């Protein structure tokens, strides 16, 4: 939670640090305070401040330190404008880039926890999860965890594409649809039907590619030689980067066509 403080305001930082669900305090400047909140608790704080925004009047202290009575929503917009004016294009880029992944943090945490549980289960039974090495119930739970992780892995790719276009003012649906090409389920089931050829050249939808490892259409995909004369791109490597690039290309085309 970022706060712009009244000049000369006295804040009891130590008392804030001792507050439940407060994980840390940052003070980038004399008039700015950042409170790091714990997972889940941040939603309660957001709702509480949402009610404050709807109050009739509040006091905003501008750069001239004079009292000006405005609504909380107007004060928030003024402060955002001041912060945006201070940013250069590099800061603006990284601010937008962070917005792509910030809603997904809780999902990454959940995936990491489930992946850790699956690894512990597999290690407990000698690294092999089948009914000859582990009880049927344990194998079933292990398979369920892997199913959930695979679903999430595909969902993350699609969400990254959606957020990339949405954050930069484009169509989230278009970004999700184009980024889906880097989802494992698409690459393993659909892409092999589209890309055929041998180790020297491949054909992708009628386009002859003489160097599949460097061509922009296929870079990022992992080629596998499935026969003496057949090369297929069966799985993407660098899924997140591929989703970002394809969504960015979709955003560029959307702006050119609109």
Can you offer a commentary on this structure?
The protein is an alpha+beta fold and 258 residues long. The protein folds into two domains: 2-86, no CATH class; 103-257, no CATH class. It is 52% helix and 19% strand. A three-stranded antiparallel beta sheet has the order 1-3-2. Helix 5 (105-124) runs antiparallel to helix 6. The two termini are 37 Å apart. The model is unreliable at 60-65 (pLDDT under 50).
Number of strands: 10
* Lateral strand order in the biggest sheet: 1-3-2
* Number of separate helices: 10
Which structural class should the secondary elements be placed in?
alpha+beta
Helix content estimate:
40-55%
* Low-pLDDT runs: 60-65
> What's the overall average pLDDT, rounded?
77
Which range does the strand content fall in?
15-25%
* Structural domain tally: 2
Q: What shape does the CA trace take?
A: flat
Using only C-alpha atoms, the radius of gyration works out to 25 Å
Main pleated sheet: 3 strands, antiparallel
- CA-CA gap between termini: 37 Å
Q: Oligomeric state of the chains?
A: single chain
Order of helices and strands: EHEEHEEHHHHHHHEEEEEH
